[in-house]
Structures are given as structure tokens and as C-alpha cells.
Fold these 2 entries.
Entry 1:
Amino acid sequence: MADAATATSTASDISGRIAVRGLSVRRGDTQALRDVDMDVAPGEMTVLLGRNGCGKSTLLRAIAGVLRPGAGTVEIGGVPRARLSARKAARRLAFLPQAPILPEGMRVRDLVAQGRHPHRGLVRHWSAADDAAIERALRATDVADFADRPLDALSGGQRQRCWIAMTLAQETPILLLDEPTTWLDLAVQLDIMRLLARLAREGRTVLVVLHDLNLAAAFADRIVMLREGRVDARGTPTEVMTEATLGRVFGLDAQVIADPRTGRPVCLPRIAA
Amino acid sequence: MRVLRVSTLGHRVALEVPARAATALALLCGLLLVLLLASLGTGSTAIGLGEALSALAGSASDRATLVATEFRLPRALTALMAGGLLAVSGALLQGTTRNPLADPALVGVSQGAGLAVIVLVVLVPAASDAWRAPAAFGGGLAVAGVILALSGGEARGAQVRFLLTGIGLAAFLAAATTAILTYGRITEAHEALGWLSGSVRAAAWDEVRRLVLATLAAALLCAMAARPLAALRLGEDVATGLGHRVARVRTGLLVASVALASASVAVAGPVTFVGLLAPHAARRIAPSGPGLHLALTWCVGAALVMGADLAGRAAFGTAHVPAGLVTALVGAPCFALLMLRTQRKDGS
């Protein structure tokens, strides 16, 4: 893993940078994103937060290329996304959507192997590099032990690790994940977040949409909060997680205290009895 | 799951093949050979397999040679390839619409192709048979376009809407076809009727040649479709993330599916349920990646139509039952079972 990490971090300064400028996206009759500017740096985990329908998933999906922006640009490593071919883009950023579809009876290894798509072509079929990338991804996510088992036989947390392994096999400097912890037990959520934090420390750009404020505060290097399609607040968890912003962005009446062990902010909603 | 690894050219070309799927493929090829031999040895004239084989080798009576080389062999080969094409067409349609119940003959693509051919046969009786395939392709494409336009959108229920729109369209096209037939002259109408029920009875070497070309094209398309299909199985968003241009891929797969169905329909008429059942049967026989699945599907479809034609000839004496009717008799109950299974899965 060490050599892979250095390889990523030397290249990361150029290729792992995301720059969003003036991005607007319409979805049906509503303006899902309005004039969004955002920079995401390599070696960090950036978390997108906001209420349901605030546009955080839309922003992630526009960066991933699933949605087309109405206006504005997304630059990946200094190159406008629109100028990258689909395959080239897929070698720079890997995207894990919310609740992806799992084909019946598929083996873990076969799923992870799908991550090699952008590195293969009609003629160029399979190589030792592909095998090595898959092995690395399986080990990095701790799923190597059940690589030959069908995914339907695994727990929710194990399955999510396998999906992350697929995106790792893509060997991109950037990882985009849309609510990777939803529906999982709390212990498993922490597990997944630790994994993502480690991947960021190794030099990757990790951009995640989360729902859980405290999970975000505990793990994020940077938080971007969206409200009604605009960026409302950005900064480190301590900068952003204030009673004022929580009230404005989430309509939440909450007290923010510091975790006595880590010093990170923790949000305690005031529950009127 | 056991896996066979084949690699040549110093690892430049390596294939990982699930052992069960590879065995199944070999067994299916054996079954196809058996069916082919049985088809050669069965018919209304009393010429057995031995005589038919020696006729093919060029050492039998003129009559036996005529029956074996001009009737039975082209007929069997037509059934084989028409079935294979329909089956692969169904698999591509199911893959691109992500609808496990999609079938070119169920959603009206085959009927659209059929209507176009009927219009050609009835209105332009002088037209060469070679025009049937392009006409069928045009008809099929038009139907595919209409279904997509009517059932479009990514909203919930799009799958059901796609299917219902297609079934409605198929019924409408069948009615239109009947209407046109009543206007046609009796000889053309009679010929067209036999063809419409899905028959390979009148197949000759011209048809075989056209199907060979279509089958070669299908093999090429399948090789190109395997990777995008693998990605699409994980959903559109994942496929996009993996670097596939989903909109373009889906259109391409849809056009390919219509083209293969049309090539089959132009020769054998709209044989139903093969495109629906073969991909499912192939999946049940042996789980595998899309490439091998397409190969298995082709074999199952070929076996289904060749078997149906054989059963239609052998089981009912001199009254030849067209292959399309046999597949419909077998297929309709299987379709009902599949519907129930899908519903149960959605419900759970």
C-alpha cells in the first residue's frame, strides 16, 4: 500500500484538485444548484452537508458527470470536466452513488473488477496491473478474506466495503461518495468513515455527502454546507458547526459542545419535553 | 464458484471463465448438434437420418438429396440462427432497458418489423425478398422509438410503463397487420399468414445466407456490448462513474437489439417468447458475466426454436405446427411464472 500511497500523493497536487465555478443545475422545474463555487483539496476529506433537497447530492453528481450543469464549470486537476472524455474522467474520479444496484449472485472479486473498466478497452482486455489493483483494493478495504463469496451473502457493512473497493480499483486520485453510511449500524458507519479518512490521509481527494452531522464533524477535514442550492457555510468542523449555522441551514435548535476527547464539535439538539 | 483461467500471447489475452458456464456452453453446443441431426432425420417424407447424411455427402438418391439439402438442412439452420438472433436481441433489450420482462416480440418490436414486411409483401408483391430485412429493421426501429417516447423518463414505474406501452402497441400493430391482410390478394395474404405465425417452413439457402451475415454481425455486436452491459448491470450512475457514456450506450444497444430481432423476423416471422425466456434460462443454467451470458443465451434461443420447429413437425403428423406457435404455447406459462417471481422479489 505504501508505494501506491506515495504514487498518489506525488500526483495528487495536480490531478486531485476539484474546482467548481459558478455551477448551476436545473432539475425539472426547480433550480437545484445556483452559482456554486467550491474547491476541494487532495489529502483531505470534504463533507457536503445540508437538508434533504438542498442540492448536495446534485452537486456530487454534477462533479461525477452524471448530471449536466446548466451553467458554470467543474475542473478536475485543472482540466474542465467537459473537455475530458468519459473514460479519461473515470480515470481521475471514481463515483459511488446512493444505493447502487447489486446484480444477483455476483462475487465480491467480480464487483471489484468492474472498477477496472476505465483502464480497459475492446482490444486491451486484462493485465497483471489489473490483478494487482484489484488485490490492493480488496486488502485496503479488508474484504480480501471473502473475495470469492457472493455479495448477497454478506452483511450491509461488508457489502459497502466491497463497493468502496470497486471505486479504489479504479485507481483514481479522487473519490466521490453519496451517503456511503446510510442504512448501516452505527459501529459499521464509524468503520466506513475510518476507512475513508485513511484513504484521504494517503493522499486522495475524498468528497462525501453525509446526512449525519456528528459523523461529519468527527471525521471531516472540511465541511461545505448547502442551503437551497447555494453554499451557505464552509470551513473546518469547528468553524462551521455553530448554533447559528445549524439553525440557519438545518432549521435546528441545537447546542454545540466540544468532544472532551477529540475537541471536535458535537451537536446536541434541544428537545423540548 | 470454480474458475478456469485461459491466457495466451504472454498474458496479453486472458480470459477468466466460470467452470460451470463453460461446461454449460459445451453441453448446449452438443444439444444443438443433436437437434440438428434430429431435424435432418425428421419430416413428412420417409427419409431417415442415415439417408439424409449420405445425401449431404453426395451419395444418395436424387429425391433424398433434394429433401435433405434443399428442405431440411436450410430449414434447420434457419431455425437455429433465427432463434439465436432473437434470444440475443432479447438479452440486449433486457440489459439496456433494465427490464427483466422485455422481449422484442412482447413489446411490439417484432410486430412492427412484421407489419413493415407485410406492407411490403402485400403492397409491393414484386419486391425481392432481400428487401424484407431492411423493411423489418425500419418497422422495428419505429416501434422502439415510439415506446421510448411514450414511456420515457426515469420516474418510478418506468419499467412497468415500458412493458405496458409495448404490449398495447403490439396489440395495435397485430390488428393493423390483420387489416392490411384483408385488403391483400389471397395468395400474398396466405403466404404472409404462414410467415406471421413464425414459421421456418419455407426457408431456403437464400435465407440461410442472410442469417449467417446477421449472426456474424451479432457476434461482433455482442463482443462490443459485453463491457457496457456489465457496467449497466450496476445501474446507470455507476456505469457513468466507470467511464461509459450511458445515453449513447443504451441507444446503441437498443438499435442493435432491434436490428437482430428484425433480421430474425424478416426470415422466420415474429416468433414469440424466445427473446424473453432464453436470457433467463441462460442465467439459471449458469451465472456468468455478460459476454458468456450472451453466448449461452444464443445457444438456448437456437435450441428453443430448432426444438420448437422439430416438435411442430414431429408431434402433429402431417399438420405442421409453426415453430412460433410452439414457442408461444411453451412461453406463455413461463412468462406468467417469471412475472410472479419478479413481483415476489419486488415485494420482499
Entry 2:
Amino acid sequence: MPLDESTVKNIAFLARLKVPDEELERLASELSNIIGWVEQLAEVDTEGVEPMTSVVEMTLPKRPDAVNDGGDRERVLANAPEPMSGYFAVPKVVE
Amino acid sequence: MTDPLTALTLAQARDGLASGDFTSEELTRAHSGAVEAARDLNLFITETPELALERAQASDTRRAKDAAAGPMDGIPIAVKDLFCTEGVLTTAGSHILDGFTPTYESTVTANLRAAGAVMVGKTNLDEFAMGSANVTSYYGPAKNPWSTGDGKDRVPGGSSGGSAAAVAAHLCSASIGTDTGGSIRQPASFSGIVGLKPTYGRCSRWGIVAFASSLDQAGPLTRTVRDAAIMLGAMAGHDAKDSTSAPVEKPDFEAALGGGVRGLKVGIPREYRIDSTPGEIETLWQQGIEWLKDAGAEPVDVALPHTKYALPTYYIVAPAEASSNLARYDGVRFGLRVPGETLDEMYENTRGEGFGAEVRRRVLIGTYVLSAGYYDAYYVKAQKVRTLIARDFKKAFETVDVILTPTAPSAAFAIGEKMDDPIAMYLNDVFTVPASLAGLPAISVPAGLDPQGLPLGLHLIGRPFDEETVLRAAEALETAARFDTKPAYLEGA
């Protein structure tokens, strides 16, 4: 199904990706081509086939539900663009 | 004038270090010098000569005390700039990771460090490993040391383009890359070297910048099959920090070599004959079959009926996982931040400016196929087809031990080609993606030249966790092919 400009605008918003209006038309056409191409999967009969959830045959390991790391605020904040008083700072979200 | 030490394979360097012919410091200085002299190829995003020297000297000290850590001790290697390295800038080839200096080391690079390997630098790659030509890097395209004399720079393949080209140009004894749909094997083919993607789960993904988590796997890029075996031994192993890392025995991969392929059943999948493949690729494939036959193996026709659906499946699954993984780049915790009035605006500005065109495209595709109303039609459907693709391989491996195909549908193309049409670029991975979707080990071995004198690889796929048979068959191909042509960049030096 071809994607129109408003669909592209919507998924760009969902992905929190700023897309200038003048790029919408080109993107809609590029993405439509790709989506049109992957849609050939519709011709494969997948009746009764389980979707893959793990590529290797192994069960997910478990570990005790206990704290095994932490207390490392400096290292956690070391790469933050705008750390403030030991926190990550962001634009105001609560009025 | 190139230093003869840079011409050594990993195994030769190991033996030379062991017998005291040279020190790791000498070997490392030779390679760091070569890295600096080859800056015009743009293969490294960060060079680490001081760090390398420090580690080389530490290696020499260990060796003087008879306490060398193993075969990798003192060996200069290059690391794809997708592995987090403690205290060393890690970019993933993206603007959005500006200035990111991890405070931790990825498990694979930590394993290599513990084995004594000496990192000479972090190599160029496609942004977030999304590409097949190393042209989507924020740091500019990497150039292939192979050229044809037509004045055009060739791509080294991708996404591990810098890692592959650095091995081909003798800037390191070996390098590491990652492979999601062919990102080790296709650049190995384009650069005339060996590239091994291990079984999914063989190497830990912890500390590797994630692209598509159900497909990503680290592996070695080397000049010989033996070198790949040695290097994989130092990279692999179970890691509790990666829940998909397999708790399996790690064999002595190098010991698997030398056994020959007598009686080995080699599957030839008819579905890999596609009309658009150039004649020389088909010819090389036939030659590969003959070589293995002459070495005592038995070629067997096998059917992999869902092969043609592998690429479209991949281009749903990989972007879906990427869009989810790349959600973490929000301008809050690391890397680039572009200000905005509100939190949403800050996210949108940061991500809009921080991601390049191909990454944006894949994030949008991924978001679309995962969005409400489309999830079943695209994502679940693709995961069902993926089950069928894996089933095809499983069935084939009931009768054969290994599968032989070409690695890529062409030799290295010129920088700038295939840029207008994303799907044409995606087709580079037509032969490598199926094994990725099924999580199987696979290797590319340099096997011949195209009519323009550019290298071409042959591709072997094995059973899960049977890298040993893959390496053994690869060695047989390598021995028969006797590929010893050097890239123009080295010949002209």
C-alpha cells in the first residue's frame, strides 16, 4: 500500500524524527517503493507457521531477582549532554 | 616504503613474536605508521597509536616473563567503531553519537584485550552499520585499496568497510566487524580478504551498538582462514551479560584446520542462480564446486525454496528492530543534543539532525511496519517467512555438511554508484542475508578476480555452532584458489 505524505508525517512523529515538509513528498515515494517491494511476502503461504521468536534453539536464561550492579552515578552521567546536579536535565515537562 | 612487518599474516606475526624475531612494540609501530600513512583511504575514525604502544609494551613485558596470554598477545588489530571501547570515542559512524566516550568495554573487545591484542584504532563504517558500501558514514566514505586504474575510487563494501579495507591495505594484522545481513562477508569479498560471521550467539553482543538484535553478530576479518580461526577463538565465549549468548563449549577452532574435506557433502542451492548475476560470478561458483570436488568433497544439489523472500523479510525485520533500538538516541543521556522548546521538540530536532538519510529511512520503515494496524501484516508475516527460511536450511543440512554460494552479486563498485535507489543497494546482500536470518555461521573466502581485476569471494554456510566445518571447507577453497593478488594501493606504494 503506497504511503501518502500525511502517513509519513505521522510515522515521523511517532519516531520523534523531524522531517522538513519539503522532504515529505520524496520520502513518501521512497518509502512506498520499499514497502511495495517487501509486500511480495504476501504471496508466501504461512498458514499454520509459527513466527520466529528466537533464531537459536535455546531457552532464555534466568538469574536471581537481585541487585547486582549500580551506585555508579558519575559513570552513568559521564556522557550526558546537559547533566545537572547529578541528574539528566531535559526541557520543562510539567507546567 | 612499507614495513615488511605489516605484510605478515596474524599467524606469522604470532610465530614471529613467539620466537623473538621482533617485539610487539616493533610490530605495532609498523602498523600504526601504516595507519597514519594511509589516511587518504579514510578507513579510521579514531587512531589510537599511544594506547597501542602502551598495550604493545605491556605485551612485550608479559612475554619477557614467559607469561604471554596466548596467540593474540601483542597482535595489532583494528576495531569497527561500533564496539564500545573504554575511554575511546565510539561513534557508530553517526553524528548523533558526537563525543560519546564509553566508560566500559564491549565483551568482545574486552576478550581481545585480555588475550593481549593491541588496538591500533577504530574503523569507519556505515552509519549504525546500515549500508553495504560504507557510504552512509557521517565521517565520509571509506575507500577500497583495490582499484582498476580507471581513476574511480571503489567502495570497500559495508558496513564493516573500514575494518575490511584496513586488513587488505596491511594496516593491521586482523580486524573485527559485525554482520547483520552481510556486513562482514560482503566487504571481505569486495576487499579480497576472509570474513567470518559466527553462529548467532557465539560471540557476545554486549557493548556493541545495537542495530538489529536478532541478527547482529561480531566476527573476524583476516587475510587467511587460519587467522580467522585464531581470532574467533579470542573473541567468542558465553557471556552472562548477553542473554542471547549461547552457553556452549568453545572448540579450538584452529585445530579444526588441516583436516581436508574428503567425503564432505557440499550443498549447491539452485535458488542462488539469479538471472541478474554477472557471468564471472557464476563461473567462479562453478570453479569453487570443482575445487572442493578435486579435494575429495561431494557436491549435492539442495533446495532452499524461500531464498527469494529473504531480502524482503530482512527489510522488515531489521528496520523494525532498528527503529526500536535507535529509540535510545534522544539527546538526554549521551551524544548530540539539539535544543527545542519542549521535550518532544528536543527529541525531534536531535534525531532529525543526528541521523543520516539511510538511518532515517530505516527508522521510518521500522516504525511503520510496527505501527498499530500493520504489525500483523508486515512484522508477524516476516517472522513467519523467517521460520520457513530457517526450516529450508535445517532440511538441507540433513543431507549436506556445508553450503557453497557466491558471497556477493558483484565486485566492488565505484563510490557514488547505486545511491539513488535504496533497493538496488539492498540487493548487495542477496546471498548473505538468508544465513543471517537463520542465525548460521558463514564465511567469505577470496577466490578470484573479475574481468577488471577486482576481488570476488565465495561463501560457505554451516550448521549452527559448526564453525569448524565451515573453516575446514574454507581452508580447502583457499588452498585451491591460491589467491595472492595484492590491491593496487599496496602494489603502487
